[in-house]
Prior knowledge:
Layout: H1 8-50, H2 60-81, H3 91-105, H4 117-129, H5 131-151, H6 158-198, H7 205-220, E1 224-231, E2 237-243, E3 254-256, H8 258-264, E4 271-276, E5 288-293, E6 298-301, H9 304-314, E7 318-325, E8 329-337, H10 344-398
Amino acid sequence: MSWRENTMPASRLDEQNEIAASLTTDAADALMVARMRLVLAVAGLLAIFVDPSGLSGVDHFTWLVFSGYILHSIAIYIFSLLNIPFSQSKLIHWLDICWYALIVLFTGGINSFFFLFFFFAILTASFRWGFEEGARITIASALMLILSGFISEMEQDLPRLLLRTTFLLTFGYMSARWGESKIELKRRIALLRDVSRLSNPRFGVDHTITSVLKKTLTFFKGSSCILVMRDKDSAIYSLRTIKEGDEEQSINAIEVRAEAASRLMAFSQDHVVAYTRPLGPAMSIFGGSLAYDGASGKWIKRGEETSQNMAELLATDSFISVPLSLRKGDGRIYVVSGKSRFSKTDALFLSHIAEQAFPVIENIEILDRMASEAVTQERKKIALDIHDTPLCQDRCRVI
């Protein structure tokens, strides 16, 4: 077993530690949300206890609903303390908005200020699960508010119903977007951390590059990731391709002819490129080719025909590509997708990944070569020692 293979269990141990840390963070967030839910439930009950005249329609059913919601909040809080998986389920947010709909209905309908409770469910869903779940909770909350208005004679307060529903939808959309950006930022930081850990001399150059490409492909949810590199000294092109769902992939690069590889090097080495095929001639604003010029720091429309030809070559509707500037050569990385539509932000982040990983990979290559040369020298020394030992013994006998 080689010295690199001995380090693989440590790598798996680091991955297990990361998973455990992530689960611990999720459990802490769930406990905090459960605690705030309980505080909100108790505050609502105290509000109608202190001033029930400020709300219309308060009766025995209202007290029953608030008491039920407090019991629900206590149960979720206990589940969170015990770290039961249900405490981190998406179902909890849906149960919350059902309780809030009942609270609004039994405290005056559309006139109830308890409609603000819906914001709690929207915020927690958005910042824990992202845009899609936050948008679902927002739409469901708006529909339940409208339904409460129907049941409680909304004809008398139609302007208020429209205003509060619009406000709920606007606030929910903004929260969902901000929640998605927070989750996306965490994913990007995690990827950059993983890339830094993967750039380790113990794993070797080929293994490190392949791991970086795989994690990049997984992050962007693409269909393939392509790396083409050119050695300046030998003018030899090498190609690596990682495809989605292909488990058995070689970690070694393949040598390709200059004519074939040059087509992948058609873009300027100063440009980060993002291309999305337009939906139609009349909707070119929703697609096209954009190039980021590092010198000016601006996105410009350039290379439309080159990008279209590249899309045909890669058989895709959307791709992002960034240049590699290496000491011994240059190259480009492509992330291709047939389902997602990449943005300018995706292309810039891909350039950050390349800037983070590949300078370190070059250092790994130098260290790997130095280690190989040291091993070769050590083997020669051992061979000479073994050869000299019998010769010395023979000389001693002669003497």
